[in-house]
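User: Teach me something about this protein's shape.
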Amino acid sequence: MKPKPSDVTPKELFDQRRSFLKLGAASVVATGSVSNLLAALKTKAPSPLSFIPSENLENLKPNSFEQASGYVNFYEFSTSKTAPVGLSKTLRPYPWELLASGEVENPQSLSIDELYQFPLEERIYRFRCVEGWSMVVPWIGFPLSALLERLKPTTKARYVKFTTLLDPIQFPDQKRGALGVIPHPYVEGLRLDEAMHPLTLLAVGMYGEKLPAQNGAPLRLIVPWKYGFKSIKSIAKIELTQEEPLNTWKLLNPREYGFYANVNPEVDHPRWSQASERLLGSLLKQKTLKFNGYEKEVASLYAGMDLKRDF
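Assistant: First, the predicted structure itself:
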């Protein structure tokens, strides 16, 4: 039995968001109890990565590591924003294999070690959640286009489908089957031109080190002009397809969550405004930028489209 649209967003998540916006508690959540939990776990620090540092031409100020790693959505572990910090210890990000296939001339299976061999660079990006909060994160990774070019898409390839690892031992919510928050495995998708855009990143790290488990180790997608749920975590499969993939949140509730999910302050979520956001660590709201501030770079991808209909 699949969750009914009325069950999505989950009540627990919606209640958390409402409280968060009401209390302006991002700084308390991110720097208080979560910091204590991160310290209490006393886990081995992620290994550092070799990468080209960002020039940060926009002079963005990143959130603290504690904020970005301690306040997350990772439904394979919990609907709570803070619980994945502890629950994600079941995730084993090494060894890891990424299967890349579909409408390509050169399908491949790549180990995480092989993915680390791509030229890595730091990208300091804004990150905007559909729930109305945001942060700034220094990600480390490589353009998705570098991998896609190696795969050599055929003329039939029009979309890229991403799938999270399916492993109930590592992801507790997957054990719940139809009773879980979402159907598993988690699926996302991009148009091929979106996937090939130079801003689109396959991230293997953040803050100078490999990704923490709760942030989607060892490999996640970052599409900075889209809402955060598009940035799928713990990717196990990439498939190039002719047809548009049915992404998980559109499957659950197409009235509220579309395929494109471009950040657009002019298009409200049916249950809340998207005109403003609360940056983690701040008690005040700030204006949401169209395409999350990347309009100059990506608006041409959607020329002639009705962004209110194709949301």
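Now, about its shape. The longest strand covers residues 133-143. Confidence is low (pLDDT under 50) at residues 1-32, 38-45. If you'd like, I can walk through any region in more detail.
User: That's plenty for now, thanks!
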